[in-house]
């Protein structure tokens, strides 16, 4: 696995030979932090253009492979992990180049060959592929967009980077499931969709309401999450392993999504009879506005309870969970550039991101059903569930912009890699196409007492099927915990006096 930045970056037409048109000093320093195992800077000149390339490597797939990777007229820079069966036990960067060389022998057009290879890749990745013969640069992300990749396009220059360029306002975040092509004769960037019609929705009336069908779906959910976690666990082979420390960490609030992942990851190690220490990383902020210390934030309290429940479930196994509590004071929050010693040595961190988008974990998903009456016709209710399904697909389509690029840039700056089992390509497709939307957002009518008497209200249970799985795994506390945004769980929201009316969408 390799980190890339300014890959084929700064491709420009210099005013004189060997003149550097773009200062890469700042990006290079940022990229060095992303890949602590290896770094390489290259300058090339061909077809009247000047190329500057810089890559740094966090090596998690052996054998160790330097980057950029050269093969004839092709140069590859790759950031990510592939889970294709053909390369699960090998180096994925070499696998991509081998696949490209094979495809080029069968395709007359290079664009077709590149698109065919990238469309077949399964994983979390971003790439830059330079064709020095035709002066084309191909770049993009996986189908969801789980890695950071941005580009800047000027009349005489193209810059591609995994970190934000100096003029971030001019940078464009690459969209998942797109192949971008920079023509270095014209300096124009175009794009094409790789996989049309990714998801095929069934009408809500298609699904069975029988209890045994629900039980079968629960079993399949468990099985598919096991698979999504397992292939992300089996592809961790650091260049300098430390058997005495944690290989894996989980971003851990103690809530439903991350606790289910922690339990499944632990059980996978048990089933393979492997000894493993898993770090559960939880963050809390001292909030001077409310006077609440980090140790009393809701996420901190819940994480301790869920950690204890995990320890009970695995007490007789070879898997141990270590709760790593990270307290951030207000002064440190203001001086966020300061680096402090970090207690977890885990190179790979698992994230529960994607569960809310797939299973209906937000209040906006509940709002779709507002206005229904207790005697609403089945057809009307089904229409709302179909609207929910469309809304969830939209959430997955834009998650690269809302979360993924930012999260990758933030976490990779510490030499860590994020992996997302809920955003596994086949898992997403199964949840969208096969899981009854009524098992995602469940509701029933209940009688509520008010000052004016009793009234009938809708009572929702978000991520219904995932909560059922938590109960099956013995995670009773997590199965009952309500969804809470991280800024409220960690108490990082509105930390200053006068911020009560501030919204997350406000321009700063």
TrEMBL record:
- Enumerate the spans annotated as Glutamine amidotransferase type-2 domain: 65-162
Alphabetic keyword roster: Amino-acid biosynthesis, Asparagine biosynthesis, Coiled coil, Glutamine amidotransferase
Asked if the keyword Amino-acid biosynthesis belongs to this entry, the reply reads yes
What are the BP-aspect GO terms?
asparagine biosynthetic process
Source organism, top-level taxon:
Eukaryota
Q: Where are the transmembrane segments?
A: none
Q: Where is the Asparagine synthetase domain?
A: 327-469
Keyword Cell inner membrane recorded: no
Q: Which residues form a coiled coil?
A: 97-124
Q: Which GO terms describe its molecular function?
A: asparagine synthase (glutamine-hydrolyzing) activity
Q: What is this protein called?
A: Asparagine synthase (glutamine-hydrolyzing)
Q: Which organism is it from?
A: Metschnikowia pulcherrima
């Amino acid at each position: 696995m390799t980190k890339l930045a300014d890959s084929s970056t700064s491709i420009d037409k210099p005013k004189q030979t060997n003149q550097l048109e773009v200062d890469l000093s700042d990006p290079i320093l940022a990229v060095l932090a992303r890949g602590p195992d290896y770094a390489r800077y290259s300058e090339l000149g061909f077809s009247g253009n000047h190329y500057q390339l810089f890559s740094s490597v966090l090596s998690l797939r052996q054998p160790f492979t330097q980057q950029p990777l050269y093969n004839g007229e092709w140069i590859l820079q790759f950031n990510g992990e592939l889970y294709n069966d053909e390369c699960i036990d090998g180096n994925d960067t070499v696998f991509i180049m081998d696949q490209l060389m094979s495809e080029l022998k069968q395709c007359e057009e290079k664009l077709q060959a590149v698109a065919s290879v990238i469309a077949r890749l399964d994983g979390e990745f971003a790439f830059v592929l330079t064709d020095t013969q035709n002066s084309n640069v191909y770049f993009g992300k996986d189908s969801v967009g789980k890695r950071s990749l941005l580009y800047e396009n000027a009349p005489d220059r193209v810059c591609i980077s995994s970190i934000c360029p100096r003029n971030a306002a001019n940078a464009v975040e690459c969209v998942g499931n797109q192949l971008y092509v920079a023509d270095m004769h014209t300096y124009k960037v175009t794009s094409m969709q790789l996989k049309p019609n990714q998801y095929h929705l069934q009408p809500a009336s298609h699904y069975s309401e029988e209890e045994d069908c629900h039980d079968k779906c629960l079993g399949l959910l468990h099985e598919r999450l096991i698979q999504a976690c397992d292939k992300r666990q089996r592809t961790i082979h650091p260049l300098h392993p430390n058997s005495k420390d944690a290989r894996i960490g989980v971003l851990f609030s103690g809530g439903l999504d991350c606790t289910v992942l922690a339990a499944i990851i632990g059980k996978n190690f048990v089933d393979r009879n492997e000894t493993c220490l898993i770090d559960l990383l939880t963050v809390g902020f001292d909030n001077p506005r409310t006077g609440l210390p980090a140790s009393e934030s809701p996420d901190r309290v819940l994480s301790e309870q869920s950690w204890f429940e995990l320890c009970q479930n695995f007490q007789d196994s070879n898997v141990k969970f270590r709760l790593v509590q990270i307290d951030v004071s207000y002064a440190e929050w203001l001086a966020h550039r300061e680096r402090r010693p970090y207690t977890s040595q885990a190179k790979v961190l698992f994230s529960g991101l994607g569960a809310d988008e797939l299973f209906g974990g937000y209040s906006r998903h509940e709002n779709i059903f507002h206005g229904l009456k207790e005697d609403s016709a089945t057809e009307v209710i089904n229409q709302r569930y179909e609207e929910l399904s469309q809304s969830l697909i939209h959430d997955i389509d834009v998650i690269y912009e809302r979360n993924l690029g930012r999260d990758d840039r933030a976490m990779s700056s510490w030499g860590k890699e994020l992996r997302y089992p809920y955003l596994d390509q086949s898992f997403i497709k199964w949840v969208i196409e096969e899981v009854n939307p009524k098992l995602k957002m469940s509701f029933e009518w209940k009688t509520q007492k008010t000052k004016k008497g009793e009234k009938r209200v809708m009572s929702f249970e978000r991520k219904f099927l995932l909560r059922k799985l938590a109960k099956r795994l013995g995670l009773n506390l997590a199965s009952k915990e309500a969804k809470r945004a991280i800024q409220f769980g960690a108490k990082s929201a509105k930390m200053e006096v006068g911020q009560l009316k501030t919204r997350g969408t406000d321009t700063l």
